[in-house]
Amino acid sequence: MTADRVTHDAVRTVDATVERAGPVDRPRVALPADEADAVPVDRVVRLLLDGTEYRTRPSRVGDAVVLSGAYDTPAGARDPGDATDRLGSWVAAHDLDYGRTVHLDVVTEGRRYGLRAPGASATYDAHEGPDASLAAIADRVQRDG
């Protein structure tokens, strides 16, 4: 079965901001409070950076929701410890300064997102989500595991 393809023009896009985080000024992406509903918090979701899929675990910081990293595996997103964060290299590759706007595309609500630099375009494979019973099992495993 082949997936349909959609462009960034066919999906909801949220303007977010690259921010400094932590004592070593690692980049993170913050969604404004009025767009905080765009991603689920404290749950691992897929994040596409230039066509490569990673995992992130959005969290709430004050009224905003932040994406603090992009990791190769769900385990890396849940417990980043020694996992390699790909978000910093993506920010550097696009020469994005702190305070710069980036675009978060909602590819599959609650599951899959794409991050674009200003002026960049993207095309995504549109995948259907799991059926309700599989989604419930996955949520339980992520929460308890």
Helix content: 10-25%
> How do the helices and strands follow one another from N- to C-terminus?
EEEEEEEHHEEEH
What would you report as the Rg, rounded to the nearest angstrom? Answer: 15 Å
Can you summarize the main beta sheet?
8 strands, mixed
Could you tell me the mean pLDDT? 86
Give the helix/strand class: alpha+beta
* CATH fold field value: At1g16640 B3 domain
Strand element count: 10
β-strand amount: 35-45%
- Which consecutive residue ranges, at least 5 long each, have pLDDT under 50? none
| CA(first)-CA(last) distance | 31 Å
What is the CATH class name?
A: Mainly Beta
Number of helices: 3
- Biggest β-sheet: strands ordered side by side in the sheet: 5-4-9-8-2-3-7-6
Q: How many separate domains make up the residues?
A: 1
- What form results from the Cα inertia axes? globular
Which architecture would the CATH scheme give at its second level? Beta Barrel
